Each structure stands twice: as C-alpha cells, then as structure tokens.
TrEMBL record:
It comes from the Bacteria. It comes from Aurantimonas aggregata. This is Probable branched-chain-amino-acid aminotransferase. Its EC number is 2.6.1.42. SUPFAM superfamilies: D-aminoacid aminotransferase-like PLP-dependent enzymes (SSF56752). Pathway: Amino-acid biosynthesis; L-valine biosynthesis; L-valine from pyruvate: step 4/4; Amino-acid biosynthesis; L-leucine biosynthesis; L-leucine from 3-methyl-2-oxobutanoate: step 4/4; Amino-acid biosynthesis; L-isoleucine biosynthesis; L-isoleucine from 2-oxobutanoate: step 4/4.
C-alpha cells in the first residue's frame, strides 16, 4: 500500500513520523475518515468543512488547501486502486521538543493519509443488524472536535465485545450520546426518528447530516434531542450512522431486543436510499 506522509507518496514500510510528533505524544491531532464508493469520494467537502472546524477549535495550522487535500485523496485512491473503502487523513501539530505548551506557530503540521480497501455496501452486519451494550461515556467534553484521542472509545468497544455485543452506546446521565465511532438514532413506536441534537457532546457526523436530509425528504418526522437509554430500549427501531457503516441497524441494546429483534424497515430503507444517492 502506498501512503502519504508530509509531501511524499511512499510504500507504507518506508513512511516515517518523528517520535517527537505531538500526535504521537499528546494525541494533539485531528482526523477525517472519508468513504470511497466506486472509486469516488463521498461528501468530501463536508469532511473538509468539519476538518477546518476541528483545526480552528484547536488552533492547529491547516496543512494544505482543500484543493491540494482533494488531489492527495484522489492520488491515493488511484495509486492503491481503491474501488470501495475508506481514506484516513490525520493532521497533527507537528514535531517539537516534548512540552505541554504548544510549539511556535512556525512548526509545520504533519499530514498523513492512508487508504483501507474494504467492502462497505455489502456488509453482512447490515443484513443481520448489530447488538450494542451501554457503557458510561467517560470521554472529554469536546466530542464535536474530531481528535485522535480514541483510547476511551476503543476501551468501550472492547467492553461491549466482552459483554457479547458488537459495539457500545455511550451513556451520560442516562442519555445516549453516540456510538464509539458512529452517531446513534432511534425510531419511536409512532414512527418518529429521534437523534441527539448537535452540541459539544457528540461528533457532528457527516453521514448523520446526509441521512437526516434523506429522512426528511422521504417524509419522516425528525426530532433532534437527547434520548434516554430507557427510551432507546423501548424504541421500535435503532440504528447508527458513520462513513464506514452508512446506516447500520441495531437489533438489541444490553441484550434487550429492539422491536422484533431484526433490522427495522426505516433503517433498511434509509440505508438503501443513502447508498443509491452516494452511487
Ligand atoms: N468515526 N461519532 C463518532 C464518535 C465518530 O468517531 C464518528 C466517525 C461518527 C460518525 O461521523 P461520520 O458520519 O462523519 O463518519 C460519530 C469514523 C468513521 C472513525 O473514527 O473511523
């Protein structure tokens, strides 16, 4: 696989980053994960807008213009022959002597990209649905910034799998914030789609925004508000959204079946129209 590191396209074994890189030492870095379908990038400009927001919230320097970043994304897709999969892009505050203070602004940011070819459209889990386990949300208070501080989400997913589930739903004060790497949604008995409103509590998912738009276009009633874990367990349907899972039905929460315990029609329909639109 060819990866991109600070201006160079290299075989992955030859790519290097300084041990003093602040991404490595302080998780002082932000990232984006963009979907590739049929060799095309999905929602690229929305990912760039979110990247800009993450950068500015942390006073990080932009590594390149959107046009240049687009060219790098396209070049990697071509060089690696990716038809379906993901592109990961990370921007760090660069390499500097270890210090809790940010280094001088002249320190160049590090920019790393790599591709992950994988089937996204025809995931078996999309047919069976996934099981989630609730885990306390112990992340920091700025989850709207897409930082690489992913240790807690990683621990939460490990805990969920230990409990026999596939992923975790993170819960704070009785309300669901989101999944470990996806946004959480439920559908009530009355057919209303409920999803957590945007705030510092959750990542502002690009897929969430696209799916809400498609849901509204297809006439669904949408409520953007916090929902409790109990409300989720009593819902008719549940699902998650992300660049890697699109729309993924949730069939149980903490071992309790959601609806009849199979993927719900709203989630399945939204997955279909999301893929149709992306194609
Ligand atoms: N994760 N919430 C969290 C905490 C996430 O990490 C992600 C994305 C999402 C969904 O955002 P989007 O629809 O823009 O992918 C929500 C990526 C896919 C990851 O970390 O791999």
């Amino acid at each position: 696989r060819i990866v991109y590191v600070n201006g160079a396209y290299l075989p992955e074994a030859e790519a290097t980053i300084s041990v003093f890189d602040r991404g490595f030492l302080f998780a002082d870095a932000v990232y984006e994960v963009t979907t590739v379908l049929g060799g095309k990038l999905i929602d690229f400009h929305a990912h760039m807008a979110r990247l800009d927001r993450s950068l500015s919230e942390l006073d990080l320097t932009a590594p390149a213009s959107h046009d240049d970043l687009l060219a790098i994304h396209r070049e990697l897709v071509t060089r690696n022959g990716v038809d379906e999969g993901l592109i990961y892009m990370q921007v760090t505050r660069g390499a500097a002597d270890r210090d809790f203070l940010f280094p001088a602004k002249v320190t160049p940011p590090s920019l790393v990209l790599f591709t992950q070819a994988m089937a996204l459209r025809d995931k078996p889990a999309a047919r069976t649905g996934i099981r989630v386990a609730s885990v306390p949300d112990l992340r920091w208070g700025r989850r709207d910034i897409k930082t690489v501080q992913l240790l807690y989400p990683s621990m939460a997913k490990m805990e969920a799998v230990r409990q026999g589930a596939d992923d975790a739903w993170l819960v704070e004060d009785g309300v669901v914030t989101e999944g470990t790497s996806n946004n959480a949604h439920i559908v009530t008995a009355g057919g209303t789609l409920i999803t957590r409103n945007l705030s510092h509590a959750i990542l502002h998912g690009i897929t969430r925004a696209a799916v809400l738009r498609l849901a509204a276009d297809s006439g669904l009633t949408i409520e953007e508000r916090p929902f409790t874990l109990d409300e989720a367990k009593a819902a008719r349907e549940a699902f998650v959204t992300s660049a890697s899972s699109f729309v993924m039905p949730v069939i149980s929460i903490d071992g309790m079946a959601i609806g009849d315990g199979t993927p719900g029609p709203v989630a399945q329909r939204l997955r279909e129209i999301y893929i149709e639109e992306a194609d």
